[in-house]
Amino acid sequence: MKKILVIDDERYINRLIEFNLGDEGYEVLTELSGAAGLENMKKNNPDLVILDIAMPEMDGLEVLQKMKEDHSLAGIPVIILTAKVMEEVEKKAKALHADAFLTKPFSPADLIEVVGKIIG
User: Where does the chain have alpha helices with state H?
Assistant: First the structure.
């Protein structure tokens, strides 16, 4: 079973993703902060990370940068989740090798399709 880690400070987004991807047969783990998400990655070695950009303390771009700097985490694919795609944010995320972008609100069908393309 493929493991997906969702890092978003909004509990309802985590639940929505967990419900929809769980129905598709994925194991879904959730965290509410970037720091907790990084620790979870080190412990659970997920197959994919779904990462919100706008979070307090450590935003998604900082998490992505720390992932790419850590040899053990650098190869994990990342889907960026954001309320508003801004050109500057998208450029930075692409430079850090984000694999895909989803804009909130997103449809469960789009989420499932993007996840399927990345990890099957």
Answer: 11-23, 34-44, 60-69, 87-95, 108-119
